[in-house]
Amino acid sequence: MFKLLASVVCAVLYGSLVATAPLGDMSLSLSSSASSEAVSTSTTGDPSLPSPTVAYASDDPNYWLWNETTRTDPQAERGKLGASILGPQNVPIDKQNPDILAPPTTDSGTVGNAKWPFSLSKMQLQTGGWVRQQNIQQMPIATAMAGVNMRLEAGAIRELHWHQTAEASWAYVLNGSTQITSVDRNGRNYVATVNKGDLWYFPPGIPHSLQATNDNPDGTEFLLIFPDGQFNDDDTLLLTDWLAHTPKEVIAKNFQDNIADWDDIPGSQLYIFPGVPPPDNQEPPTSPFGTVPEPFSFEFSKVVPTQYSGGSAKIADSTVFNVSTQIAVAEVTVEPGAMRELHWHPTQNEWGFYLEGTARVTIFAGTGIAQTFDYQPGDISYVPTAYGHYVENTGNTTLRFLEIFNSDKFEDVSLAQWLALTPPKLVQEHLQLSNNTIAHFNNTKDRVVGPKKTSS
Q1: Which of 331, 341, 392, 403 is catalytic?
Q2: Which of 409, 386, 208 is nearest to 317 (CA)?
Q3: 313-449 maps to which CATH number?
Q4: Vertex 354, ends 414 and 295: CA angle to 5°?
Q5: What is the UniProt remark on how the cofactor binds and its stoichiometry (predicted)?
Q6: Most buried of 98, 126, 246, 369 (most Cβ within 10 A)?
Q7: The pLDDT of residue 34
């Protein structure tokens, strides 16, 4: 009786499983002979490969569906999935984010918000310029780095200041030129004019100033990076703020002057204020201790990029910009139809900044979690350490962006190179690829991959 009852229950359960299983999963319920038949019809055509233990990955197309230049009405629809939006809709934002509104079917779960447009950061307007920032308040995922975008009119000064002990200061000049000054802990000084596309770096605790030259009549604009996601530019230690909160008799005693000599010092911080544009060839006062042994600026704009099949890349880290021991950068260009290859950074978080063009990035976080984001000029991206990703050009112009790392050296691992240098049989057993496909894997890093060449 019990055997009969068990047989009936098993039959019912098996029947309901077959009736409700998706069509793509039916191969998992077949006998071993049927599974072998499924393998024989796979792309490899090699019956010696093992039977699949899971269903094959979907061939559904997952291209981006629109961009800002198309006339497509952005809706939460991809193929037969989703439905139109009936309520209020912010169409300009949806046009910028097709892979958020209608995600690829390969997306699963969320990795946290990995996009922040600087346009959404509050501006602090000053006499002579402005500043805005991004830290973990705007982008909680970005725990390792924070960014500041600053603009100074010609002659305007970001006043003499320094940052808290652990915070180095790194910068990329977006436009114009900026004169930097500094004195290190040993009394060695440094003055330089840093031009568009060039870098500067101040080690932790080193005082410095920033001033726009008039090489560009509009002044200068630059991007600042700090290796701490909690950095807040409002917490900077400023010369005028310190002296405004120090008794004048103490100041006079310190400098061996009369109190009257200090009558006109500001009663509060200046932060950014107008000034006279400095000459590009300005020399610092002669120090008895000389100048800093390693320059605090680097002519990154003069570095010749390495060319790849789909674009270019150039790198500045401590191997070439020796003083920059906490920040490394790669400036990457991706031509239309090309992509920054599938890769990851083994020990580094990546803070990205988009300079030109449009892109999409899928971030793979493991455990079946992946999410795709779209980027425009002025947007910030963030990829946590070891998360797999790519950067694809979604426009018809050259894409240019910065990859910035809280590290002394730039490092990445290429998926294609890894598989090319792994025993082919092992790769085949994982992915069921043909020998011919594996033989074409690139065993050198093609960091920017061009469109597939079509045979004529």
Answers
A1: 403
A2: 409
A3: 2.60.120.10
A4: 85
A5: Binds 2 manganese ions per subunit.
A6: 98
A7: 35
294-333 residue pLDDT tens: 999 999 999 999 999 999 999 999 999 999 999 999 999 9
Instruction: Evaluate whether 144-298 and 313-449 have a shared fold.
Output: yes
Of 409, 399, 366, 404, the residue nearest 109 (C-alpha): 366
Tokens representing residue 183 in the block: 């004195």
Q: How confident is the model at residue 165, as a pLDDT?
A: 67
Report the C-alpha gap between 39 and 52 in whole angstroms. 7
pLDDT of residue 191: 98
pLDDT in tens, 165-177: 678 999 999 999 9
Task: Provide the percentage of residues in the chain whose pLDDT is more than 90.
Answer: 83
Neighbouring CB atoms inside 10 A of 83's CB total: 8
Domain range annotation of the chain: 144-298, 313-449
Q: Is 345 annotated as a binding residue?
A: yes
CA distances from 367 to 100, 112, 370 (A): 20, 15, 9
153 annotated binding-site participant = no
430 is in an annotated binding site: no
CATH architecture of residue range(s) 144-298: Sandwich (2.60)
- Count CB atoms within 10 A of the CB of residue 151: 22
Q: Which of 406, 349, 384, 411 is nearest to 226 (CA)?
A: 406
